Here is the input.
Amino acid sequence: MTDCPTPLTSLPRPECDARAELPAALVPLVAKLAPAEFRQQDRLQRELRCVVECDHAGPHHGLVMDLDGVDTGSVWARWRTGTAPAAVVVLADCDAASVDGMEACGEFAGHPGAHSWQLENPWTATPA
Ligand SMILES: [Zn+2]
Ligand SMILES: [Zn+2]
Here is the structure.
């Protein structure tokens, strides 16, 4: 997990970035949750990383699969630190957009913490 710097108001905030692997036993469940017409089997993510703001409350959330289509939401895996994901769920997409309308939030509706455009993505951040 990423260390969470203080002050808590400084932007951008780091993502939690907790890692987990989707257990093979949950893969068929993803197929069940994803309607065939929206399924993108080749885009199933087994290497999960939590995209919520660092130091968030509640379980970690890693994106398993984006579902095609409008208002279809996405498949997410939830887990607690030190445990493997035990469940996958379909959650609606966060419908917030940045003030200039240029960026949509990549997290799920009702997520804790900052929206994704306020977070520093460790995969895209350029090293200082
Ligand atoms: Zn997390
Ligand atoms: Zn959001």
In short: The first strand starts at residue 13 and ends at 14. The chain has one helix and seven strands. The helical segments are 27-33.
